[in-house]
Amino acid sequence: MIKLSSLTIGRSAVIREFEKSDIHIKLMEMGCVPGETIKVEKIAPLGDPICIIVAGYNLSLRKTEADHIWVEEIAV
């Protein structure tokens, strides 16, 4: 497993778990739930924010938020 912030553009992964913090509730309310497939759509030139596709919509996350999400990359 790797952190979501480590994925590169165009890569897909399945959310596996969150680091324990207050932000995990906010992330789950936005559709980032364990078992959900995500795809990295864009990354800003300086690496922050990260735009992902989750639950059928685009979501922008700060890199610090993406650091709390552990994913399992889907092999292409």
Automatic annotation (TrEMBL):
Gene3D superfamilies: 2.30.30.90. Keywords: Iron. SUPFAM superfamilies: C-terminal domain of transcriptional repressors. Transmembrane segments: none annotated. Residues 2-73 form the Ferrous iron transporter FeoA-like domain. Signal peptide: none annotated. The keyword Iron applies. Pfam families: FeoA (PF04023). This is Ferrous iron transport protein A.
